[in-house]
Amino acid sequence: MTYARRFAVLSCLTLSFACFALVATADEGMWTFDNFPAKQVQQKFGWAPDKPWLDRVQAAAVRLTGGCSASFVSPDGLVLTNHHCVATCVQNLSTASQDYIANGFVTQNREEERLCPGQQAEVVTSITDVTPRVQTAIGKKTGAELAKARDAETAAIETESCTDKEKERCQVVTLYGGGQYKLYRYRKYSDVRLVWAPEQQAAFFGGDPDNFNFPRYNLDAAFLRVYENGKPASTPQFLKWNPRAPQAGEPTFVVGNPGSTQRLFTEAQFDFRRDNYFPVLVPLASEYRGRLLAEMDDDAEKTRTGNDRLHSVENSYKVFIGQWQALRDDEFRGRLTKAERDLRAKVKGNAEIGDPWTEIEKAVASFSTYFTEYFILEERPGWRTDLYMYARELVRSAIERDKQPADRLPAYAESRLPLLEKQITDEKPTYPWLEEMTMAFWLSKTRELLTADDPRVKDLLGKDSPEQLAKSVVAGTKLADANVRKELWNGGLKAVQASQDPMIQFALAVEKHARPLLDRYRAEYDGPATVAQAKLAKARFAAFGESVYPDATFSLRISYGAVEGWKERGKDVPFATNFTGLFERATGAFPYDLAAKIAAAEDKIDKSTTYNFVTTNDIIGGNSGSPVIARDGSVLGAAFDGNIHSLGGAYGFDQRMNRTIVVSSAAVQEALEKIYIAPALIKELNDTPITKP
Amino acid sequence: MTYARRFAVLSCLTLSFACFALVATADEGMWTFDNFPAKQVQQKFGWAPDKPWLDRVQAAAVRLTGGCSASFVSPDGLVLTNHHCVATCVQNLSTASQDYIANGFVTQNREEERLCPGQQAEVVTSITDVTPRVQTAIGKKTGAELAKARDAETAAIETESCTDKEKERCQVVTLYGGGQYKLYRYRKYSDVRLVWAPEQQAAFFGGDPDNFNFPRYNLDAAFLRVYENGKPASTPQFLKWNPRAPQAGEPTFVVGNPGSTQRLFTEAQFDFRRDNYFPVLVPLASEYRGRLLAEMDDDAEKTRTGNDRLHSVENSYKVFIGQWQALRDDEFRGRLTKAERDLRAKVKGNAEIGDPWTEIEKAVASFSTYFTEYFILEERPGWRTDLYMYARELVRSAIERDKQPADRLPAYAESRLPLLEKQITDEKPTYPWLEEMTMAFWLSKTRELLTADDPRVKDLLGKDSPEQLAKSVVAGTKLADANVRKELWNGGLKAVQASQDPMIQFALAVEKHARPLLDRYRAEYDGPATVAQAKLAKARFAAFGESVYPDATFSLRISYGAVEGWKERGKDVPFATNFTGLFERATGAFPYDLAAKIAAAEDKIDKSTTYNFVTTNDIIGGNSGSPVIARDGSVLGAAFDGNIHSLGGAYGFDQRMNRTIVVSSAAVQEALEKIYIAPALIKELNDTPITKP
Questions:
Q1: Which residue, of A385, A449, B17, B337, has the greatest Cβ tally within 10 A?
Q2: pTM of the model
Q3: Residue B7's pLDDT is what?
Q4: What is the mean pLDDT of chain B?
């Protein structure tokens, strides 16, 4: 239901289901809380967090189901995150006459706080090792049988472990490519309300051209609040607000949920991404972006309603380009190649490990032959437009819920249904023009990629053109109405199959063609890759011992680093910007025009206040909104981006160049005081005294 | 001034200036008329064309300066080509009230024939070897000096050799990568008029989805007429019109001007295309296509005026995708790699040849470091939109014409100026919305690729956004007026520099930033590559003797082949379609809706008439409109496309799969008789009796 968002979980293709053990160098690593690299940190800073420090931080760390991270910053459920993590909510709450994206959303008291549709906040309460149980279930199975056994056992563990469906969520996280399975138990909050969001032009000054760049001047911060029984939840474990300037070299810890990395893909998998995946994905994303830009151009209402989609599209696009470039860079790629060669050499002759590289190569080669079909029909059906995704999820969840739990696809395990139901049935606006153009785009690309003579294309289009079909299903569907969706959800498979809704009927037709591709993928790629990747994990543990961290999986991690600039083409990039720089960079022309409220407050603002700053922490999409924590456990700001070099971080970390970009607590404080005038919020944030570092 | 058109000269990047000697297998080869492979043809068919046959055909072969091929088919200057080769002309002659693209253009007599703006037709009258002269001028020079000496000598030869500027054009063609330089002398016709064009929906039924596919049902044919002194030119050397069905296996000869192939690029050059060139070009082309589609959607006038651009963009896009896929295909690429390895082995130790592969690798590596800048500022400035290209050519030609002939860039040699002047100063419509959106696109991509902080971007944009600047230069320029362009052309550098026209001023600013990149390219890539490629040509001659043909250079070639289908995924694709198939494929929804005139004539049409057919001839973009000639020298149709496999033909020919797609003379005859009712044209075409084969 949700789109890949800036620094949200980037859709890295299901190839990357599994993960690997990674050997960390320098500040590298997105560490699990139960394997914190205390030795390395001690070595670097002469000090390291202890268990109570880590426990306190873990209890204050929040995951947002839209694909972001966040943290509690008051005992009353107040949550700090990024503006771009709440932009969908801000847009959903807006109307043509009250546009909070353009004007910002400021509350003076709790009564004014408003529910964010589909949003859920989650806090880890425990982590348990369930590896033996899952591995026993897998046994010696292979292919589709293996995937099924693994998913069934995982689902069973999740269902057994979380009995309070209102307040709990259980998730088995696959780490080290199946080397470990861990049960993460979460306290969940389904009532999440918007407290404060600046104008988007304040949060995203410089827009797409400045995205992933630095120096930067973005007030990319926002506050939410979690509620319980209609009242602000009590959150005694929170991080202290610290609106001071960060100091050069001081230690920083980023706590959040990095979405997905593929740092220990094999050569075959890297090649696949470079030569198959991106060459199909990027041109499509590019054309969609072009269509969207042209549709929105000179149309104020489309500009308003398409805003959220456009940002998501442009952000993803830049991520794709950056990742792809890294894989085409000889030096960068050479390091990856060398790492594989080294590992192979170290475990040569180890019979238990064998040759997982060739196993993966074969699985990739087979996947390549039907990748395009899989991509367009299964991975990006309807180009994930809202109404289509409602239909697709209603259809697929109905089919899966009709099966025994052990037979279901993992995304429809009993433990996953409550969030899915919430995402499908929460009320939120849809925009017919956007739905129609997106569907028309996807249909025309489906025809282009599969050809007009493909029987599936003929079945889906019939005698219609993509444009005609898009128009008729969007005009005819009632799925924009949350009540209709609720009825279908509750009615299950019978209701779905009997539905006369044209979008549901269309989604049923697509399902018919997509399902064989998914089955094939699970049997021929996912199964073999799971076996091979578990062997690779073993190989890495054998070669490197404990000094490894798993690939990112949108589960809770901590990374350490320091406030530090870098050298760009021989020139030093200073570690921080301030408000003076913002006013200097403003040209008046979008996206370099100042937000109205900032422009109006120019004389009041202390322009020497630190605005954004960078650190060496190792993060990735999904970390957006993560608290950046000082040694004393206080919040110096919220991570909202990486620099352009960080995009290659999906595949490898380069400490010389990769930087995390942070909006400082100092800038947020200055904004709340001088620009947005939110005294209650300032009081709440600053009520607890700060321990100086 | 002209855009890459379907099967027109595809813009293959200036990397491909030079060409290579190719070793032909089977029906492979785009042969020069002075090295016709009579032996191979004799072997295949037990017969081969003799000198008089070749001379007759050469004299009837026409090159269209828009990037197409054609042939005389009557003694009165009547020219057969493709609809898509005249589509720009048809569009230029159309207005909102009289849309010849939608309705077709049919004349009943010569008075109704109308001038095509910017069009020139050319016929080769002689080919002379000038290799010794050019090689003497080059001597031992290197880098920029080499490029300059070569271009100066070439320009001098052209200027000396064609003294009648009204009727003649001289062009020195570089063959075999500088292994040969040949002077082609042309009789030129500057007054070219449109005689007949069907509706575009007849010519391009199936549109983009069916483009490069087969079975196919396209009436992609048109007639032009060349005039002299206001009267139809006398063209006694013409090809006989032959409206019969082609026979399975019969020999076919395609005569035309294949635009550009890169079949003997080195590995470094192939890698560059795969990893640098297409990954930059394709996403940009894709976004532009998306913007254009969205702008035209639901807007009848934009759909009309943007039609020509959209077709050109979509066609190029499919070509890029096809070429790129070929380079990413392991098997296809493996053949290229093997060919290089074999050649290296054969000439190993030959001191005269040395190691040109490494020389090219170095030149490519250097080019890679500034390729993106070069591409956006020099190779695709203004995304080649009409008004910007007027400005750019007025600016650059003024600068170059101000120099001594020996110092000019080759595109501005004295011999090239008449056509350039015609293209700049001929009257033709421009569409402000299209100009503005294209400029805005290019400016925003320039900022994206170079970053907002690049000094050149800052200089070009100032405080404007791309959209603001595009709007102001397009609204402010007077270059849409041909008289203004004429004045500037005549006024030369002084007039250009003094011009207050915002588009001229903007083009001057771009020139300032583009020129250093061009200079660098000529010195560091073009110069070294010319030396290395001449060595590679020597290597190939040494290894393979005479059985080689040069890469395509949009100069006259002949290829031989036969009428023959192919096997696609185990299934036979028959070699021809007929009108029955057209009516069966029509769905009524664009682009599968029938042209109105065809639908209206359904009952009259003999549906068994051959519509399109395929042959094994080796062709490439630029061959569009080429006559497909039977053994007796008559015209069986006009080549208008290749199948999807032919797109890899840029890099290698695969006779099992590559096919030329032809619109049959039989279909054209049927259409003129039953659908478009053009008795005078039928009479003119059929007046000369046909010799049966």
A1: A385
A2: 0.93
A3: 36
A4: 93
Q: How far is A468 from chain B (nearest CA, A)?
A: 8
Closest CA to A262 of A576, A529, A457, A504: A529
Rg (CA), chain A: 24
The mean pLDDT of B342-357, rounded to a whole number, is 93
H-type helices in A100-259, by residue range? 100-103, 131-138, 143-161, 200-203, 207-210
Helix (H) or strand (E) holding B393: helix B386-401
| Distance between A590 CA and the closest CA of chain B, angstroms | 6
Nearest to A286 among B287, B295, B467 (CB): B287
Q: Beta A610-615 vs A240-241: how paired, if at all? A: unpaired
Half-sphere exposure of A57 (CA within 13 A, CB side): 29
By the 8 A CB rule, do A569 and A657 touch? no
User: Which residue spans within B214-358 are E strands per DSSP?
Assistant: 222-228, 231-232, 240-241, 251-256
Question: Could you give the ipTM of this predicted complex?
Answer: 0.91
Picking from B283, B447, B587, the nearest residue to A209 by CB comes out as: B447
CA pair distance B522, B18, nearest whole angstrom: 13
pLDDT band at B319 (very low <50, low <70, confident <90, very high): very high
B401 secondary structure, DSSP code: H
Cα separation values, B248 from A277, B245, B619, Å: 41, 10, 19
Q: For residue range A363-389, list pLDDT tens digits in order.
A: 999 999 999 999 999 999 999 999 999
Please give the biggest Cα pair distance in chain A. 71
Owner of token pair 């969207």: A292
According to DSSP, the β-strands at A571-573 and A566-568 are antiparallel
Type and span of the H or E element at A547: none
Question: Chain A residues with CB inside 8 Å of B277's CB?
Answer: none
A239 three-class SS? coil
Six token digits for residue A200: 């988007």
Question: Quick check: A206 and B452 CB within 8 A?
Answer: yes
Give the pLDDT confidence score for residue A13 in this predicted structure: 25
Give the residue from B205, B214, B287, B571 with the most A CB atoms within 10 Å of its CB, the best one to mutate: B287
Residue of A nearest to B445 (CA): A209
- Separation CA A289–CA A291 (nearest Å): 5
User: What pLDDT, in 10s, does the model give residues A122-143?
Assistant: 999 999 999 999 999 999 998 8
Residue type, position B4, single letter: A
Query: For residue A692, what pLDDT is reported?
Result: 39
Mutation for B interface: A465, A585, A645, most B CBs within 10 A: A465
Contacts of A328 in chain B (CB under 8 A): 275-276, 279
Q: How far, in Å, CA of A423 to CA of A494, rounded?
A: 21
Chain A with chain B: Cβ pairs closer than 8 A: 114
Interchain pair B288, A290: CB under 8 A: yes
Contacts B447 to A, Cβ<8 Å: 209
Q: Is A168 on the interface with B (CB under 8 A)?
A: no
CA distance readout (Å), A594 to A39, A311, A361, A604: 45, 18, 51, 15
Amino acid identity, residue B594? Answer: L
Cα A684 to Cα A73, A110, A223, A241, A259, distances in angstroms: 9, 12, 12, 10, 31
H or E stretch covering B577: strand B576-578
State how far the Cα of A76 lies from the Cα of A86, in Å rounded to an integer: 19
Query: Which chain B residues are closer than 8 Å to A452 by Cβ?
Result: 206, 209-210, 213, 592
pLDDT confidence of residue A688? 65
User: Among partner residues A209, A289, A452, which is closest to B290 by beta-carbon distance?
Assistant: A289
The Cα A3–Cα A384 span in angstroms is: 7
A483-489 own/partner pairs: CB under 8 Å, 24+ apart: A485/A390, A485/A394, A485/A424, A485/A425, A486/A425, A488/A394, A488/A398, A489/A394, A489/A397, A489/A421, A489/A424, A489/A425
